Amino acid sequence: MDAVIDLHAHILPAVDDGPRDLEAAVALVADAHRLGVRTIAATPHVNPTYFTRPETTAARLDELREAVAAAGIEIELLPGAELDFTTLAGLDGAERAAHGLGGNAQLLLVETPFTALPLSFATTLLELRGDGIIPVLAHPERSPGILGDIEQLRAPIESGTVVQVNAGSLLGRFGRRVQQTAHAIVAAELCHLVASDMHNVGDRLNELDRVAEVLGNPTLARWLTFEVPEALLAGSSLSLRPPPGRLELL
Hints:
With 250 residues, the chain is α/β, with parallel strands linked by helices. The protein has helices at 22-34, 54-70, 85-88, 93-98, 121-130, 144-147, 154-158, 167-170, 176-187, 211-215, 218-234; strands at 4-9, 37-42, 45-46, 76-78, 82-84, 107-111, 134-138, 162-166, 193-195.
């Protein structure tokens, strides 16, 4: 598989439920690099439990970059955040911009609620688009509000929201129902990119190298793991989506 860009990863040490210390963070990055990942956006949680501030992200990212370079790992590490849907509403424009995905103030990684979708779900995403921001909706396949009705993604997508599915979901790491939903989202062409959402080298590692295998479609896998994230980081239009073909659950 070609080089991969991972736009959702918890790699910063001791800020959320990701790696506990710098050594574990470097090991996580090294493992991703071994699998072909060449760019990673560090996306710590910004939620009531882990309210990671932009200055904390910047400081820990500098620390991790230095340690990764010292270890001889050639990889690009970018800033970002995974914004809790409810927390997002309390942030002003400057605060949102400081959490921009890949350092891009017009790109925000927004976590799909792990509850029934709030009435403001589609409206909030539409308002972000009205402010010139592209919301990247993180792992909707894991949301109870989406599991029974993936068509709820269609209206936000039509207004410009980008949908991100976890590699682990496609591989069944979160159970059969989440896996089936993830595959259904891809098959319905409601997914734009796949990311790792990696947290540690144990049970939440980077598995983006297996996306082509699980989808049975290397062309689509490259679009989801390289072409789309590359375009988002560059502020470019997305290339034409390859057809999903027939997807088989492993």
